[in-house]
Amino acid sequence: MLASDAKSGSLDGDNCGSFHELSLRIGYFRKQNSRPSALDRRLGYEWRTTTACRDLALRVTGIEVTPNQDLANDLKKKAAIGVPEATNRMKDSGHLVTIDAIKVESNDNKEEEDDGGEDDGEEEEKTGLTGAAKKKKKKSNKKKKIKQTEPPTIPLSTIFPSKIYPEGELSEYKDDNLWRTTSEEKRALEKQNFDQYNDARRAAEVHRQVRQYARRTIKPGMTMIEICEMIENGTRNLVEANGFDSGIAFPTGCSLNHVAAHYTPNAGDKTVIQYGDVCKIDFGVHVGGRIVDSAFTLTFDPVYDNLLAAVRDATNTGVREAGIDVRMGDIGAAIQEVMESYEVEIGGKTYPVKPIRNLTGHSIDLYKIHGTKSVPIVNNGDPTKMEEGDYFAIETFGSTGRGIVRTDMECSHYSRAYDVPKTIPIRLARAKTLFDTINREFGTLPFCRRYLDRLGEDKYLLALRSLVDSGHVNAHPPLVDVKGSFTAQYEHTFVLRPTRKEVLSRGDDY
Ligand SMILES: [Co+2]
């Protein structure tokens, strides 16, 4: 939609791809009576442009932007001007914008190398541009593909200027539900839901890009706080975190060894990740409340490979078995069978891999990470069925310990109760203000103490405890198996679309 509107852009671009992009998007605004669309409002009116000549990257934020070509050329020529000066020039020329970053990049064009130096290759971007816009684009097409930086900083909406994000892994329903694949009625329903899926796909692509960087980068010796901040900063940048429109969906889990879930460092935590650790990285991204919840296990010592293989296989089995009308108990049974077929030898001792039977996957609702349905990882006989339109996170945990977790250690994870007790007043004044902050900043999305710290909240522990005691806030302390054991986790989010299943968080890595 956005892309085809954009072709009505009336500004003439030069041959620099980025300015085409900028002018095309402005054209879209003009068609909308010079008012930004709801989508762009949501994106915070944020553009980032990178010239094809790679000498300048410019990021503009503001209320309304109507740049002209002279200004664009001027900025291009004078890549070295500073941010305040660029902002003033925009203002002097009557543009209501502020510029928050100008980055000068080196001239060696990596993309050109990757493309074998070909300049006039085939039109292959899936931008949806047609006609005049396509023609305009053609020359600088290849160069326009913007690559993610390391660490990841470029918003996904810049990498996908069409604002159409990649689909996840698709699979057809089986047996009695195979008719859905070709049903006209179900297809029509999906078309109506496109924006919803697109939001979820955007969250999923952010997850993939952030985690793939994290997997390459996390090394023994890093503090848990560094690890979490790397993931959280990457997520905020790529999803353009903006209140309830988009952002981090819950605290970054990085539980170690016998701790299976719900550990993230609090301020002052000096824990450093070790070569022999088994670390579960569990983080979430949301767009418009659509949450993608996905986790993997990070190890450095290959001795754990079989443990990881067991859990990855178990999670994939659960994902594969899932479908419309499938019973929870049957999925749990399939997961259990696969998980228990593995064993792992650690330090000369062989352990069976046990599913942690009191942990489950879950359905996901808007802004609610835990919907009403649970997906067991053992056969518990639950006859509840999965239904069309449901979003699920299937997460399985394998352990060399007892296969049961209990709560232990200092709490870091909290969430506002979905249904706040209406009859119980909040007595402490400090608890009232803290509760206001929680409502305003997180709503029903889980948060951790570090997220409160960065908002400038301090000395809140007593107030937080009283909110937990009164039932306004839930505490989610770490969940641990026996000391000395090792636990691993893999998790994927999928949606049961009317015609097929889409595993949103699937990547090349897991
Ligand atoms: Co989950």
TrEMBL record:
It is found in: Cytoplasm. Residues 200-396 form the Peptidase M24 domain. Substrate binds at H262, H370. Residues 133-146 have a biased composition (Basic residues). It holds the Pfam family Peptidase_M24. GO terms for cellular component: cytoplasm. A divalent metal cation 1 binds at D282, D293, E491. InterPro entries: Creatinase/aminopeptidase-like (IPR036005), Met_Aminopeptidase_Type2 (IPR050247), Pept_M24 (IPR000994), Pept_M24_MAP (IPR001714), Pept_M24A_MAP2 (IPR002468), WH-like_DNA-bd_sf (IPR036388), WH_DNA-bd_sf (IPR036390). It catalyses: Release of N-terminal amino acids, preferentially methionine, from peptides and arylamides. Residues 110-125 have a biased composition (Acidic residues). It is an enzyme of class 3 (hydrolase). Its EC number is 3.4.11.18. Its main location: cytoplasm. GO terms for molecular function: initiator methionyl aminopeptidase activity; metal ion binding; metalloaminopeptidase activity. One of its GO terms (biological process) is proteolysis. Residues 100-160 are annotated as: Disordered. Its cofactor is Co(2+); Zn(2+); Mn(2+); Fe(2+). It comes from the Eukaryota. Keywords: Aminopeptidase, Cytoplasm, Hydrolase, Metal-binding, Protease. PANTHER family: METHIONINE AMINOPEPTIDASE 2. Cotranslationally removes the N-terminal methionine from nascent proteins. The N-terminal methionine is often cleaved when the second residue in the primary sequence is small and uncharged (Met-Ala-, Cys, Gly, Pro, Ser, Thr, or Val). Belongs to the peptidase M24A family. Methionine aminopeptidase eukaryotic type 2 subfamily. This is Methionine aminopeptidase 2. It comes from Podila minutissima.
